[in-house]
Design goal:
Blueprint: H1 2-34, H2 38-42, H3 44-49, H4 61-73, H5 80-89, H6 93-106, H7 114-121, H8 128-136, H9 144-148, E1 152-154, E2 160-162, H10 168-198, H11 202-212, H12 220-231, H13 236-243, H14 257-280, H15 285-293, H16 298-309, H17 311-326, H18 330-335, H19 343-353, H20 357-382, H21 387-393
Antiparallel strand pairs: 1-2
Helix pairs in contact: 1-20, 5-6, 5-8, 10-14, 10-17, 12-14, 14-17, 15-16, 17-20, 19-20
């Protein structure tokens, strides 16, 4: 019991760290992706007055009076999130709500019925669309943002249909396509390097490992700008190609997919090499010699003895590179073109530029689900095959 208690006490800081940095943020992101309470919290009277309204009939007179009461109950400074939420349903609703709030605050003692006052302030209050937007934002939960993150929407009849104006499916394909390509490039380049390093004595391998880690000692922004200078039309790479008469004119190597792949592969290559090297260096060499003494060629020894025991390092390297590449934001934004922007750019646009944190959270949730599915598939592909073991048993 004392040993178990000591182990539990040692694990408490780790559990708290994971809870604060991973579990709680993920839970909050999931909740934010389906939460829809900004407008409902500030418009309770208006939503109650719209109960039973079918959206096609004239707006109830009581709804105008309830809206004026809701406007008067909350200061103008607190209406920003609710107005932004209505703007998602009805473009222009944010400016409409905020301008009406300011006008009513300045002329709150003026006469006239609420309907006439609102329509006189802005004729759009007579249109059913703004009231339909208020009713659509009644919350407290919604699947709108998760559907929008999948290029889907819910129609007036409640059926889910495809939203042909959205682009997020193509963004997911582009993001994970780039991540898989970078992972494959890092594996193709890193596996031979890891094999060579594992064959060296530790005192000779250490300087080369430090050299490989040089890209990690500079900031992402500096690395991206360095690659722009190297790959531009008058950069060192194009000058070398033309100087060696490989090309007769500069090749477009930056502000496109090629530049993104080169820059990301350069940065993430150490994440592939180090886990593979760490596993390969502890594989007993007497197994390789025994296989060779039994007549196996070097290629057969590598493929049947050495590589299967390196699967754990290969899996770790692929996961590290794939996870890092999937979330890249600065490098594609600087080195790539408009057709090379990854999901991080669009999350930033939704959260900061368009003030739509729910859509940003929904994009993160869908990304997490796809990412975990891809990691599961990667584990299934890289796990040791059991066919050989079954054959030996038979």
């Amino acid at each position: 019991m004392r040993r178990h208690l000591g182990t539990a006490l040692l694990l408490i800081p780790l559990v708290l760290f994971l809870a604060v940095t991973l579990v709680i943020p993920v839970c909050l992101m999931v909740v934010e992706s389906v939460r829809d309470s900004e407008a409902a919290r500030l418009l309770p009277r208006t939503l109650a007055s719209l109960e039973g309204w079918n959206g096609a009939a004239p707006v109830p007179t009581a709804a105008y009076e309830a809206l004026v009461q809701d406007f008067a109950a909350t200061p103008v400074s607190q209406w920003g999130p609710a107005a932004s939420r209505l703007n998602i349903e009805f473009p222009g609703a944010r400016s409409l709500v905020l301008s009406t709030l300011r006008a009513l605050a300045m002329a709150e003692d003026s006469g006239g019925d609420p309907q006439s006052r609102l329509i006189a302030q802005d004729p759009r209050w007579a249109e059913p669309r703004i009231w339909q937007a208020i009713w659509a934002a009644r919350g407290p939960w919604t699947d709108r943002f998760l559907l929008a993150a999948l290029d889907l929407k819910r129609g007036e009849n409640g059926m889910i249909t495809e939203d042909k104006q959205s682009i997020y499916r193509a963004i997911y394909i582009r993001t994970f396509g780039i991540a898989l390509t970078v992972t494959a490039l890092c594996l193709a380049l890193g596996l031979p390097i890891a094999v060579y390093l594992a064959s060296l004595p530790p005192q000779k391998a250490m300087p080369l490992l430090l050299l490989l880690m040089l890209p990690l000692w500079t900031s992402v922004l500096v690395r991206a700008m360095a690659w722009i200078l190297l790959l531009q039309n008058n950069g060192l790479v194009n000058q070398a190609l033309m100087g060696l008469h490989i090309t007769t004119a500069p090749i477009q190597l930056v502000f496109n997919r090629i530049g993104v792949l080169i820059a990301m592969t350069h940065v993430l290559l150490p994440f592939m090499i180090l886990p593979i090297y760490n596993v390969m260096r502890v594989i007993p060499r007497n197994q390789l010699r025994a296989a060779g003494s039994l007549g196996a060629t070097p290629w057969v020894v590598f493929r049947r003895v050495y590589l299967p025991q390196s699967r754990a390092g290969i899996a770790a390297g692929c996961i590290l590179v794939f996870a890092s590449a999937s979330g890249y934001y600065i490098t594609p934004a600087l080195v790539g073109g408009g057709a090379d922007q990854m999901l991080g750019t669009f999350v930033e646009l939704a959260a900061i530029r368009y003030s739509n944190q729910s859509l940003a959270a929904a994009l993160g949730v869908i990304f997490m689900v796809i990412f975990l599915s891809a990691i599961g598939a990667l584990f299934a592909w890289l796990r040791p095959m059991r066919a050989a073991t079954g054959g030996l048993k038979g």
